């Protein structure tokens, strides 16, 4: 069977929803969000809040700008997340003494304790995919490569 290249496919075929890789990624993302919503309910976190906590559990205290870089979020999106996490008592924000424009965030004692309660979450999500660990790693690698290529083309 002969392999088709992008140039071999008529433009009209690309306008079909079923041929859109972005839609497949969007649909998968929405499905993940549903699984995470259930898995995170007992922790009292939304998926974006969980991502912030993952970064803070891994790195400790960080400038807000670096948290945004890890999560690919701008400050307009990240600031409200941090405010809500601070209101729940999981995160503490502080202005840098060296530079008042710089704000850092770190997990509080309650935020660090939450990590223990969240330990089983990644396994639950992985099991929900029905994929093997090897396939999960391969898919993650492919998606990271795709992101790099898309960033370079933008």
From TrEMBL:
Protein name in the entry: MarR family transcriptional regulator
Stored Gene3D superfamilies: Winged helix-like DNA-binding domain superfamily/Winged helix DNA-binding domain
Alphabetical UniProt keywords: Cytoplasm, DNA-binding, Transcription, Transcription regulation
Cellular compartment(s): Cytoplasm
InterPro entries: HTH_MarR-typ (IPR000835), MarR/SlyA-like (IPR039422), Transc_reg_Sar_Rot_HTH (IPR055166), WH-like_DNA-bd_sf (IPR036388), WH_DNA-bd_sf (IPR036390)
Record Pfam families: Staph_reg_Sar_Rot
Residue ranges annotated for the HTH marR-type domain, each copy included: 18-148
The keyword Acetylation is annotated on this UniProt entry: no
């Amino acid at each position: 069977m002969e392999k088709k290249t992008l140039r071999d496919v008529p433009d009209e075929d690309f306008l079909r929803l079923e041929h859109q890789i972005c839609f497949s990624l969007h649909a998968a993302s929405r499905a993940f969000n549903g699984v995470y919503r259930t898995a995170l309910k007992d922790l009292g976190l939304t998926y974006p809040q969980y991502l912030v906590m993952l970064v803070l559990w891994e790195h400790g205290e960080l400038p807000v700008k670096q948290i945004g870089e890890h999560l690919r979020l701008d400050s307009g999106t990240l600031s409200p997340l941090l405010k809500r996490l601070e209101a729940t008592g999981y995160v503490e924000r502080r202005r840098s003494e060296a530079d008042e424009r710089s704000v850092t965030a770190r997990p509080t004692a309650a935020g660090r304790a939450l990590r223990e309660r969240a330990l089983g979450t990644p396994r639950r999500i992985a099991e929900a995919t029905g994929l093997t660990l090897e396939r999960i790693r391969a898919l993650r690698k492919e998606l990271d490569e795709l992101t790099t290529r898309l960033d370079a083309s933008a």
